[in-house]
Amino acid sequence: MDIRQIRYFLEVAREGSISHAAERLYITQPSLTRRMQNLESEVGRSLFIRGGRRLRLTETGELLKKRAEQITELFDKTEAELLVPAGEPSGDVFIGGGETRAMKLLTDVAAKLHADCPGIYFHIYSGDMSDISERLDKGLADFGLFIEPADLGKYEYLTLPFSDEWGIIMPSGHPLAAKESITPEDLAGVPLMRSRHSLDRSAISEWVASIPDPKPAATYNLLYNATLMAEAGIGCVLCINGIVNLTGSETLCFRPLSPAVRSGVSVAWKKDQVFSRAASLFLKYLKASIAEK
Known about the structure:
Layout: H1 3-15, H2 18-25, H3 29-43, E1 48-49, E2 56-57, H4 59-82, E3 90-97, H5 103-116, E4 119-126, H6 129-137, E5 143-147, E6 155-171, E7 191-195, H7 202-209, E8 215-220, H8 223-231, E9 236-240, E10 252-256, E11 262-270, H9 277-292
Parallel strand pairs: 3-4, 3-5, 7-8, 7-9
Antiparallel strand pairs: 1-2, 5-11, 6-9, 6-10, 6-11
């Protein structure tokens, strides 16, 4: 199994058709069919469910598709790092992070580095903590931004001079909108939406556990979508302040928790990581920025 064969498989999986994939790959349909048959023989299992207008992936095919996407992404990342010319610093920096205002610190560092070295480009991936950890472990990200508490024992990391404030987003006409802050007692019987990754975070979980008569309404992984649910009247949203800009909003408002809950944020990378020149410079600039604060 080589990288070309993997790319061909991905194209077939995405198109759901040998003929359409062959057109996009500029090869003949019989040639691509043979390549897919050879791949199935090599794997020893069927990758496609044939029949109907579209090809569908078997369970093995779905697994291979997921791994193939990771393999091609890592291959492209490695190739780009190796092909960086000597001279002025250039290349790519890959950053993964959850939804947190601390990303502003990283983007400020990225902006300064890009101003000094225009040949350096940044790739930002947003996801929950398990997504970011997986990308770090597989070499698909150089750095990961983690909202604490997080299990960072297997990484090198820097704790940022920043913490996120937790609170509630609710419709502006909600009875609780008249309060300056929200207590656990205020949320008794109130439909509440939580991010999935907040379910196992000790500080916020302990606060939520003290709500009498809790009424879970939904979970989310992207706050913007959760605010649409709040506008629709599904419930209030437990979230971090500042991720969604509510300045001037006539439909939604944010109120902090009482007692207050804040979460620290850290930037992590693999131990003994061999950085590209671009990633090394980013870390250097980041450490300098933290030292100035």
